[in-house]
Amino acid sequence: MFRRILVASDLSPAAEQIINMIYSFHVLGTEEIVLVHCLDIRDAGLLSETLIPLLQPEVDREVAKLNQLGFVTTGEIRIGSPGLEINRVARERDCSIIVIGSHGYSMDQNTSLGGVATTILHTATRPVLVVKITSPPSEISWNPLNHILYPTDFSDNAKVAFTYLETLVRCGAGKVTLLHVQDKIIGKHLVDRLAEFNKIDETLLLELRDQLVNEGDVEVKIEIPFGLVAQEIINRIKTDEVSLVVMGTQGRGYIGEVFLGSVSNKVVRYSPVPVLLVPLVK
Q: Which residue in 135, 116, 240, 254 sits closest to 183, CA to CA?
């Protein structure tokens, strides 16, 4: 499932952090990488064709580094709207996921891709792995399979995300936490039925646990807290030594809302670890 991935680069020092952590993708079975740098036609304008020869050596340098890490890597420079072009390349090259960087806090402005992360996420038909850019860069090597957090609301999108979780377990994930948050806002008028809902949801989580255990030798923990959904997810990321979050981009409560303002947006903004956002492709 992760054999060929797309890595979006703005050729900045921040992009170097993404390049350096890509080695960990070997444990996911990744063999090929498509490295893409996009010149925004709105900024470069008529200079685009002139800039390509100047940027090509930087693209070649990053390609060479990824090749040295053991991946078959090709590099491309595209001209257009970066968010749209990156998704276009992912479709054309049949990449299983897109890897982008983010500084967090404001997905509209402060991203390592110059403000295109939101567009990528809005139009993505492939899962997007959002990697937090830190300053200074972390010196700790990243193993995505150490402890995976899977927040679920049992929506159709969450079910699609679960298929990626199953693949990660087959790749050798050591620990998985299945998390369903009883929404404090929605459920404040139904507190007297909380025990009933917990029992129903525990049954659903146990079924998911059994599916994962059948996929590999993995430790699976189940949690059903009561509180604010995004806050509970973020708290567990920070306190439970989570290495990767896998979740859908939209849930049952976000009709027509793909990313902005959703729980997934808040998780991406404040998560200190990479988040794999899986879209519901209709």
A: 254
